[in-house]
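Task: complex structure prediction.
Instruction: return structure tokens for all chains below.
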Amino acid sequence: MAPVLEVRSLTADHGRLRAVSEVSLRLDAGEVHAVIGANGAGKSTLLRAIAGLHPPASGTVLLDGDDVTRHPPERRVAAGLSLVPEGRRLFASLTVEENLLVGTHVARPGPWDLERVYDLFGWMRDRRRQRAEHLSGGEQQAVAIGRALVANPKVLLLDELSLGLSPKVVRDMYATLPRLLAEGVTVLLVEQDVSQAVRVATRIHCLLEGRTTLTGPPAVFTPAQIEAAYFGLGKTHP
Amino acid sequence: MNWVGAVVQGVLVGGWYALAACGLSLTFGIMRLVNIAHGDLAVCGAYLTLVLSSALGLPVGYTLPLVLPIAFAIGVALHLLLFGRALRGGPLAPVLVTFGLSVMIENLLVAGLSADPRSLDAGRLALAGVRVTAFGSVITLSWLRIAGFLTALAVLGGLHLLLARTSFGRLVRATSDDLDTARLVGVRVRPVFATVAGIAVATAALAGVFLGMTATFDPYAGGLSLIFAFEAVVIGGLGSLWGTLLGGVTIGLVQQLAAQWDVQYTVLAVHLLFFAVLAVRPQGFFPASEPEAA
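Output:
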């Protein structure tokens, strides 16, 4: 079976600075891949390029076998690729419910709708009329995930879920992941918290200065190997 | 005229300023577009009505079902051809592009329709008035002014409902909050903004029609309308629709009250008020940190 999401030697620049260099990924349905790496390793740029917000310099992005490399983000959403951006980025002046409704704008048919999201995050139904800007960071993150889910994506890109959240909130957030996978979503996530990434991922990719320094199922690596790839100690790539 | 009359007239005239300004407020509040040609587009609306009503032999009011859709289509086309690109060109590009558009419109109007002042024939409405007794003084109110004020209220109320209650309005507010994120959840920004531009130009044309019925206009009348409209928007608070109404009414009041004292100081009084507001409360009465949803 063709992979749900395939990225072939993707290269992306920030001005004259190379942010992502020749990165390749293959996600089969139901997998969870985690991209790890230090600050500035190119993780977020990689996700933004896959989502269509950052035009790549070269390389190909295939969604279910279709080349979407030149498609704008709004077309990729309709094709089943949604990004939960770093820092939540809710529509601050809209209510929780309105944020979710905007997410249904180009929804594909599928299991997720507002009711299912309210079931997933129990507190949300009672506070759906509140403005998004009045929510805590963890609540905003939940709404951002819900807003992406209601489009019924095949592939969900999660950028730094844990950023600025307390460890307990992060644990709760990741505890919802199996529920998403059970509905057939494939997940590509970016995470600075390596232990969290190793716990949930079926495969990890470590980036260092835009290049893949290590990739494989987390179980096959020792913590020392991951650490070496993360910080660039020793040479694991040509 | 007396003081009570001046206040009432000021509020009514202020409604027209709000109508002229609300499109400006809309495009600035939603897409951060400062449209220097907004006043000229209003004047275009007046000329379009003039041409259509004389060509078709229809009274002014009956041409509105033609004028407003045409104005809307012009706004959509302007966004697709000019504004959309200009907005991607940094903060200065929209100002320069719409300034150029303004110059072009004025000169095309002069070339095509001459610089003679014109006016629109409002028919019986033009001269009809109603006499009201309030606070012991008798005021004569023109039906045309009352109609203009009610139209402004209806337009602002309609825009508010459109933005606050409809799914289109939700997309507009989301895009206005965060454009990139709106695209990430599937909003196609161009048609949304083009529709907003269309609505803005249609409201400008409507304001132009009322301008033509209550006063004379010529190809250069857009400049002064634009300044007053800008002042209404800034006094009310950038990007806030109800603030724009309040700003328009404030300008109308100051103008009429200054006229009670000496007619030649009316324009100066408005500019001084504008200056005072900028000095004391530069964010305006209702700063739009909370866009139209309130």
